[in-house]
Automatic annotation (TrEMBL):
Pfam families: HTH_48 (PF17906), LRR_6 (PF13516)
Protein's recorded name: Dynein regulatory complex subunit 5
Domain of life: Eukaryota
Residues annotated as domain Mos1 transposase HTH: 6-52
Species name: Nephila pilipes
Amino acid sequence: MEISEIRVLMKYEFHRGATTRQAVANINSVFGIQVATNATVARRLKKFRSGDFDLSNEPRGRPKAQVDHDVLKATVEANSRQSARPGLENLKANANAKQWQQILGYLSLTLPFEYTLPIIENGFYWERQCVMRWPSSETWRYDNNWKTMLIERVVQEAIEDFMPESSDIKELEDFLRIFQDYTFRLHIKQLQKLNRKPFIVDLTSEDFDSVLDDFIYKPEVHTSYLDFEMLLGCLTKLKEFSFILTPGSLDSDSYRLSITDFNSLLRSLRKLEMLEKFRCSNGVATNIQLDILSREFITHKFLKELNMSYNFIDDGSCDAIGQLIMSSCPLEVLILRYNKITDDGAITLASALSVNKKLRKLDVSLNWIGNKGGTFLAKVVSKLESLEDIDVSNNKLGPKAGIAFADAVKNSKCIRSLNIAENRFDEAVGQKFSDAVGENSIILHLEIKFCNFSTDDEDFIHRVLIQNRASVTYATYVLEHKRVTASQYII
């Protein structure tokens, strides 16, 4: 027998006005065996009375969640603890996709992050959080990910707005630990400084030993800023850390790291074993401190980008950077923009590059490199097989160095981007670059502004670059040059 036949009989008995017991007896008498029970017939007759005459199978398993959205909204707004983590987990488990989105529209924006972060994925709820705090147009800085934007901005503001003299450092530590399992970037642009005198030790003091012990075992007592070791110890999964304090005055001592502050920063960096990008700029560290940082990264297993731009790095500091270049560190991008590197420093860096097979980008723009250092660097670059992007703009390169870089473009098999803008070249160098570019089909970007090239050479170089870019897709070019516009691709 078919179950559909039995349900047809149930419908027939319903229209006859039979009771449940009468319907069961009549149906079983038709088949001669018990095919209907009181419970089954009663459930079906109840559906008929409600106007539902559908004879198909009823859905099995867990019933769909029935959410009264008015009640939910009132409950959540009245008491945010109703939506703590266990409650959120239950709501998400019992709601379909549409219902869950409606729930996220009602959730209070003041719920603790320790409850919402593990459960709510990127989307509408985090968009609401961000729009409430900052201009929504800034989401592009975070790969259009609202949750990432929320995490990075909230952590940054908590650190930058912390008042060491009036706030409890333990509260900040507990707050940062909420984000310790998330991978994100940290950019610090300002810190509140303690009003402390620099740490000075009187070597003739009778209690020198106790002072020294205090300095070693309790360094945070003498720091002018936050305890970086505690700070970054809560965020050990950071992939990118940028430390750029904005100068408050022309007096570098007013914002530069003291010995104790730098030691705290150094110990904290040792805990960031997964760090891939690090930036220390604006002269917050002395050259000696930057040397120590460079040597510290020699054994780092993941660091791919180091940015020490806008400091006071001179030729002496290039020795430590050269050791880093020659080390086993997987460094791919080195930015030394706006420093005090001259010919000797450039030669030191170039010598280190000659044994390096990993570095893809080198930026030494806005330095004091002249013909001697530039020529040596160009000759080394022409033989490298990994360096694709070089920026030597705004230096003191003359015609001799310009011709050397033209030869590098002609002979190199890997240079795809070269910036030589605003150097002391002449038309003869422009002719050399025209000849070099004409024989190079892989270079895609050559910046030659204010190089005193002739109009014909500039026009020829641009047309060759357009032809080279046409050989690769726009998508490929954009991947190699982040945030490039369509006009930059064509022109």
